[in-house]
Amino acid sequence: MGGVTQADRGAGPVRDPGLQPERTRLAWRRTTLSCTVAAVLGARAVLHDGTSALGVLACALCLLLWLGFLAVAHRRMVMLTAPRPRTMSPRAARAAALCTFALAVCAVVMLL
């Protein structure tokens, strides 16, 4: 009967995020770097083997997708600087996943 109840604790313990936001921010930076390397290598492959209309189109689409992913990642990294960062919205998560998937499709098209 002498236990502490939820009402005694108030709204609950204050969450100490520790280094988790920093680790997440670094993970987004590594992912952005990987996406950049993939886009540059794809463009290099298209330009090195001779240009075709389909290759140039795939390269341009690859650049647009990279810029889209870069925008989503930058927005998320900025949000993680808050003392209590919000979770990533489903819309932003879908945009990042779509950019990643479409970038892989462009890579396959550039290899053809």
Automatic annotation (TrEMBL):
Residues 1-21 are annotated as: Disordered. It is found in: Endomembrane system. It is a multi-pass membrane protein. The chain crosses the membrane at residues 53-72, 92-111. Keywords: Membrane, Transmembrane, Transmembrane helix. InterPro entries: DUF202 (IPR003807). Residues 16-77 form the DUF202 domain. Its main location: membrane. This is DUF202 domain-containing protein.
